[in-house]
Amino acid sequence: MYVHFIMILGSTSNINILFYEACSRKLYLTEGDYIMKEVLKYLNECGVFYLATVEADQPRVRPFGAVCAFEEKLYIVTSNEKKVYEQIESNPKVEISGMSAGTWIRLEGILRRDDRTAARQAMLDANEKTLSRLYSADDNKMEVLYFEEGTATVYSMSEPPKVLAL
Fold first, then answer.
1. 37 contacts 69 by C-beta, under 8 angstroms
2. What angle do CA 48, 52, 58 make, to 5 degrees?
3. Who's near 101: CB < 8 A, 6+ residues apart?
4. Global pTM?
5. Averaged over 105-133, what is the pLDDT?
6. DSSP H/E element including 124
7. Tally of CB atoms within 10 A around 12
8. What is the CA radius of gyration of the chain?
9. CB under 8 Å, gap of 24 or more: what pairs does 98-104 form?
């Protein structure tokens, strides 16, 4: 399995660290766990990333910054009082784009709502500084959405794109 990771991500240093952590803690991470952690790390390094939706036939793009991994899925958060939430409900196909350290990422996929309190709490815990003044896990306006399926592609001007299935 570790060789497969190297082929997908092209980074032996990250694999060696992951392998050491897995062996020393007796953790067994799946390929999905590792890819999710890499995508989450990248988006957090971006700080701000951009979510694109569609309203009728018009594209809509806006900045986002809160993201988390929960139960091997990548989550974003918004309010059910915002137009972006209505747009996602109407057409759950979205794209996210962000840039960090001279590379950029594009995530494309389908978002699904998760109405569980545990998922909302995971988002709050991962983004406490940003979200604690806006939402609570049971405020009836916070919505967490996860990528049901999707692809993340990391681009660079000097290397071939790295494609990761979410």
1. yes
2. 140
3. 45
4. 0.81
5. 97
6. helix 117-126
7. 12
8. 16
9. 98/42, 98/43, 98/46, 98/48, 98/49, 98/50, 99/46, 100/42, 100/45, 100/46, 101/45, 102/156, 102/157, 103/154, 103/155, 103/156, 104/154, 104/155
What pLDDT does 35 receive? Answer: 85
Please report where in the chains the tokens 């594009």 appear, as a residue.
106
Cβ(164)–Cβ(9) below 8 Å: yes
List the structure tokens of 151: 């692809």
Using one digit for the tens of pLDDT, what is the confidence trace for 145-155? 999 999 999 99
Q: Which two tokens stand for residue 102?
A: 């001279």
Of the CA atoms within 13 Å of residue 19, those in its CB half-sphere come to 12
Q: What are phi and psi of 48, to 5 degrees?
A: -115, 135
Q: How far is the CA of 148 from the CAs of 39, 49, 71, 93, 141, in angstroms?
A: 15, 19, 12, 10, 21
Tokens encoding 64: 């986002």
Q: Are 106 and 97 in contact (CB under 8 A)?
A: yes
> Would you state the torsion angle of the CA atoms of residues 162, 4, 10, 26, taken in this order, to the nearest 10 degrees?
120
